[in-house]
Design brief:
- The structure holds 2 protein chains of 2 kinds.
- By secondary structure, chain A is mainly β.
- Chain A has strands spanning 4-7, 10-14, 19-25, 32-38, 45-51, 56-59, 62-67, 72-77, 86-92, 104-105, 109-114.
- Chain A is built from no helices and 11 strands.
- In chain A, 34% of the residues are buried.
- The relative contact order of chain B is 0.33.
- Chain B is mainly beta.
- The chains are: A mainly beta, B mainly beta.
């Protein structure tokens, strides 16, 4: 089955700096790669996603890049703010309308943004 | 819209007891999922459903059962609770790929402790 590795497990940055979280996946058939943000005591929330026909996607201060050949994708957060502090999860799946698209998650990165 | 609602939020069970974790969604999503989250381990898929009357096992189904009698509800049943089932349980739902916005919507979780 699909195996998703995520690094680093913890990341501390100063407010205003950039943060980068990296993930690798094992199944070359995977074609959907979302990122989730989980705040303390809450469920994960989708922040951005990318499909395998796109190399990069940006939404304000958040961007995701995908390298299909190397089977890795990354989350980039620019101009970090204290409210960006949370646990971030990457995931990978194969979108198939008959079988759902069960997500395989990485183990998470705890991001701390210090003022 | 309430989104995905999980009850209860917290529960302590004794070894050998049984319980049902409730999950309901009001977004008319066909797909629903149950994940468990253990510290530092990410989220593991327990069961999923692609529609009413259809369920399938995920990565860690042992000790659990599910049913999907309606589009809205997807309860998770624990029989003979064991300490290894101490975890935070998340229910999620999504549209069929290609229909509507992508990505999971998660509930706020149920924190279960088995003693």
């Amino acid at each position: 089955g699909e195996n998703v590795e995520q690094h680093p497990s913890t990341l501390s940055v100063q407010e205003g700096d950039s943060a980068v979280i990296k993930c690798t996946y094992s199944d070359s058939a995977s074609n959907y790669f979302p990122w989730y943000k989980q705040e303390l005591g809450k469920g994960p929330q989708l922040i951005i996603d990318i499909r395998s026909n796109v190399g990069e996607k940006k939404d304000q201060r958040i961007a995701v890049t995908l390298n299909k050949t190397a089977k890795h994708f990354s989350l980039h957060i620019t101009e970090t703010q204290p409210e960006d502090s949370a646990v971030y999860f990457c995931a990978a799946s194969i979108e198939a309308s008959n079988s759902g698209y069960a997500l395989n998650f990485g183990k998470g990165t705890s991001l701390l943004v210090t003022p | 819209n309430a989104g995905v609602t999980q009850t209860p939020k917290f529960r302590i069970l004794k070894i050998g007891q049984s319980m049902t974790l409730q999950c309901t969604q009001d977004m008319n999503h066909n797909y629903m999922y149950w994940y468990r989250q253990d510290p530092g381990m990410g989220l593991k898929l327990i069961y999923y459903s692609v529609g009413a009357g259809i369920t399938d096992k995920g990565e860690v189904p042992n000790g659990y059962n599910v049913s999907r009698s309606t589009t809205e509800d997807f309860p998770l049943r624990l029989e003979l609770a064991a300490p290894s089932q101490t975890s935070v349980y998340f229910c999620a739902s999504s549209h069929v790929p290609g229909q509507g916005s992508y990505g999971y919507t998660f509930g706020s979780g149920t924190r279960l402790t088995v003693v």
